[in-house]
Automatic annotation (TrEMBL):
Keywords: Membrane, Transmembrane, Transmembrane helix. It comes from the Bacteria. InterPro entries: DUF3397. Pfam families: DUF3397 (PF11877). It comes from Fictibacillus phosphorivorans. This is DUF3397 domain-containing protein. The chain crosses the membrane at residues 6-24, 65-85, 105-125.
Length: 127
């Protein structure tokens, strides 16, 4: 049973967009709201993108650059804190984290596809 759960988790970390597809379709079937389903899909996929990018960097370069991902997350929080403070009076931690989490989805998606392309090309050129 543990090996089955491990295999499922490894698959979801390797291909995080499976999570997006499953959550998006499930929430849409339950609520019939496309926007809510899309947001839930992106929110749940972001966590798996963090893990996938960390594993890809270890596989490509042999060491983890997780500190860069954490720094990127903190810089996003600072960026949204500044924007909300500058243009609105309501500084809400929940709003800052939600906006940053969705920004991270966008940035990590670009990073995921870039690292995947780089990894495939570098493996082909090694042979």
């Amino acid at each position: 049973m543990i090996s089955v759960i491990g295999a499922i988790m490894a698959t979801l970390i390797t291909v995080p967009y499976i999570v997006f597809f499953l959550v998006n379709k499930s929430i849409y079937k339950l609520t019939k709201k496309k926007r809510m389903a899309f947001k839930a899909g992106t929110d749940s996929t972001t966590f798996f993108l963090f893990l996938a990018i960390e594993r890809m960097t270890v596989e490509i370069w042999g060491q983890s650059y997780y500190w860069i991902l954490l720094l990127l997350f903190l810089l996003g929080c600072l960026f949204f804190t500044y924007l909300i403070w500058k243009y609105e009076l309501d500084l809400s931690i929940g709003k800052i984290l939600r906006l940053n989490w969705r920004l991270q989805f966008l940035i990590l998606s670009i990073g995921y596809f870039s690292l995947m392309s780089y990894g495939i090309v570098s493996r082909i050129l090694e042979v």
